[in-house]
Each structure stands twice: as C-alpha cells, then as structure tokens.
C-alpha cells in the first residue's frame, strides 16, 4: 500500500516520496484560448468527481468521526 491513514486529520500520507514531472508549454492566440477552455472543463469535471466521491455514503477514505464522551 502506498499510503497510510493519518487518523487525526482524516488524510492520507504517502509512504514514499511522490515524484512528478511537469511540461509547460505556452500557447497564444485562438489555440491558446481553446486550450484554456478545455483545461477549465477538465478541471471542473475532476473537481465534481472528487466532490461526488466524498459525498457518497461509504466512499470516503477518511476515518469515521469519533463520538465525544
């Protein structure tokens, strides 16, 4: 398993460092405008998907809240 539960915060921590590579390209003009629209659409879809996953009962990876005594 690549992640462990941090029960105090209900978050996950990676056991190993996460490595990422980003390639940045600058695009102007009509092609740049189209790319910005497409990126905004995709980001919106991802955010909506994450929100649905977190709001579905039983789908959260976070630990259940503890009852105060």
What would you note in describing this structure?
- This protein has 69 residues and is α+β, with helices and mostly antiparallel strands.
- It has a domain at 25-60.
- Helices cover 39% and strands 12% of the residues.
- It contains 1 helix and 2 strands.
- It has one helix spanning 29-55; strands spanning 3-6, 11-14.
- Strands 1-2 form a two-stranded antiparallel ribbon.
- The longest helix has 27 residues, at 29-55.
- The chain is flat.
- The mean pLDDT is 76.
Q: Roughly what fraction of the amino acids lie in strands?
A: 5-15%
Specify the number of helices: 1
The gyration radius over C-alpha positions equals 18 Å
Return the structural class: alpha+beta
Mean pLDDT: 76
Taking the sheet with the most strands, its summary is:
2 strands, antiparallel
List the uncertain runs: none
Percent of residues in helices: 25-40%
């Amino acid at each position: 398993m690549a992640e462990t539960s941090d029960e105090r915060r209900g978050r996950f921590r990676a056991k190993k460092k996460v490595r990422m590579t980003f390639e940045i390209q600058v695009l102007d003009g009509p092609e740049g405008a189209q790319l910005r629209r497409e990126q905004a659409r995709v980001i919106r879809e991802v955010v909506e998907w994450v929100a649905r996953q977190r709001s579905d009962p039983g789908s959260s990876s976070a630990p259940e809240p503890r009852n105060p005594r």
